[in-house]
Structure formats: structure tokens, C-alpha cells
Amino acid sequence: MKYNTVKNAENILNNSKYLVKNPSNSKNNWSSVFGNNNPIDLELGMGRGAFIIEMAKKYPNINFIGLELDKNQTAYALDRLNRENISNLKIICSDAKNIIDFFGKEINTIYLTFSEPWPKKDDARKRFTHESYLRLYDRVFKKNKHIILKTDNKILFASALESLSNYWYTFNKVSLDLHNDERNIPNIMTDFESEYYKEKRPIYYVDAKFDD
Ligand SMILES: C[S@@+](CC[C@H](N)C(=O)[O-])C[C@H]1O[C@@H](n2cnc3c(N)ncnc32)[C@H](O)[C@@H]1O
Questions:
Q1: What pLDDT tens digit does each residue of the chain (212 aa) get?
Q2: DSSP labels for 61-72?
């Protein structure tokens, strides 16, 4: 998928009610941001936001936060949101490696959707399922740890399964072809996933947990 530049991206970022501009100020206080004590789920690398927006609409009793590094992708998502009125969704434009500055032990589920695969061995540390990231997630999960990952990339998927199981996660569900899985796993597609679906590419899926 092409990453197009969004016209007036800065302007969209500056004027959106969904963007939390100083997320560090909300650390340990996200329940007040949302105005309720509902669980909070976080997507890292949300891109244009199709997944997190639809999740927020489908599950109004869960609060959602979409985090994205790239300003253009974030602006695209915020522009989509201008046409919506969703009270259980907030957006952060930042690097995922900063999450411990933004959250205390407040997160129920982390979604890793079509994350950069970083296929070269030397770049493995940058994968969102590298142990260094799993350690960060430990610091933001409220109690039990819960990660849902989807990808079309076999190398990333294999390394994610290895990394998660080495870190004592167990697997609720694993699928090597999410869209053709007989179990009908509930699913909302991301923007990338919609493209891959058209191309009939298999999507790898894991729902992993670590219960205290
Ligand atoms: C392949 S895209 C997938 C986007 C979206 N999840 C989807 O499935 O349509 C990966 C996204 O992760 C974002 N990203 C990469 N590294 C990141 C980081 N360290 N922190 C936050 N976002 C990141 C990229 O900017 C990009 O938008």
C-alpha cells in the first residue's frame, strides 16, 4: 500500500478532538480522559486507523487508543474521524517505544496489526514482539497480559510466536489463515489487511495471554 502525503496534515493534527497532544499528562489518568472505568485497549502502529475506528464502534464498552508514529498516517485517521462522533477512541502520534511515558498499568489488550516485519536479523530488536518491547508492555498491562497480532509476514509471525512463548505467553488461538479459518474468529480488517484480503494472501493470527 502506498503512503501518500496528506494535505494539511499539521492542521488536521492541531485541530482534532481525538488526538491527545501530550499523552504523558494522561499517564495513570486515562479513565478520566474517557470519563469511565471501562477497559482500555491499545493498537500500536494503527496506520490509517480503519481497525481501531471500527473496533471502537463495534465495542462501545471498551475504550480504544490508536498509536501511530507517522504524522501523515495519523492525519489520515483523524480526517476519517472528523466524520464520526466516537466517545471511546483517542489517538496518539508517537513512537511505540515511548508507551511507558504515556501509560501506567492501564491497558487490557495490545493489538499489533501488520507491524513492520524488520526481516533482517540485525533489525530483529525493532520488531514489536521483541523481548525489549514485551518488557515495555509488562509495564502498561493492567493485570493480565493480552496481545493480539495479525500479519501477512511469515518471518515476523514465526519470530513473534517464538518470542512470546519464550516470554511465557500461552496461546488462546493461532491461525495460519485467519480469513478461511473454520472457527470463524471475530475479526475487523485493517487497511493493509483489506488489500491482502483482495489478493487472497493468508493472514497469520495469534491471540496470546499471560495470566497472573
Ligand atoms: C505496515 S503499516 C500497518 C498499518 C495498520 N496497522 C494496518 O494494518 O493497516 C505499519 C505502521 O506502523 C507504523 N510504525 C512503524 N514503527 C512504529 C513505531 N515505532 N511506533 C509507532 N508506529 C510505528 C508505521 O508508520 C505504519 O503506519
A1: 666 788 899 999 999 999 999 999 999 999 999 999 999 999 999 999 999 999 999 999 999 999 999 999 999 999 999 889 999 999 999 999 999 999 999 999 999 999 999 999 899 999 999 999 999 999 999 999 999 999 999 999 999 999 999 999 999 999 999 999 999 999 999 999 999 999 999 999 999 999 87
A2: TSEEEEEES-HH
Mutate to test the pocket of ligand 1, among 44, 69, 94 (most ligand atoms within 8 A of CB): 69
**pTM for the full model?**
0.98
Ligand 1 centroid–CA 4 distance in Å is 14
Ligand 1 atom closest to Cα of 113?
Answer: 6
Cβ(117)–Cβ(155) under 8 Å? yes
Cβ pair 205, 72 in contact under 8 A? no
